[in-house]
Amino acid sequence: xxxxxxxxxxxxxxxxxxxxxxxxxxxxxxxxxxxxxxxxxxxxxxxxxxxxxxxxxxxxxxxxxxxxxxxxxxxxxxxxxxxxxxxxxxxxxxxxxxxxxxxxxxxxxxxxxxxxxxxxxxxxxxxxxxxxxxxxxxxxxxx
Length: 143
Known about the structure:
This protein is mainly α. Helices cover 45% and strands 6% of the residues. It has a two-stranded parallel ribbon. Residues 1-130 form the Transposase IS4-like domain.
């Protein structure tokens, strides 16, 4: 997702048994300076396929490690606040999913094959981008 516009720029559909971190290289287009990911992307900066991506990877701490932080110390408090900031930034990615679920009613997925389901996701995210930009599009048509 693009941080400036809030639009989805890449959608990758995989089987359910494929780990998120294996697709990280396919989700970035190369112009990013910072990339934020949840705890499922731990170790992404060490993977061979992401070595040529010149971006700062900000990956969430595992929930157990975050609970184990000593929030009584300044360092523990600072690390917890850093995790909170990362979570706020990652939360913005959830908005297109809300649009797909609420505006377009895509709540449950019927498995029709990986290709067809991925094509449906591409279409839904394209419609979601149009929905989120509808006011700007209409202003451009008026003016």
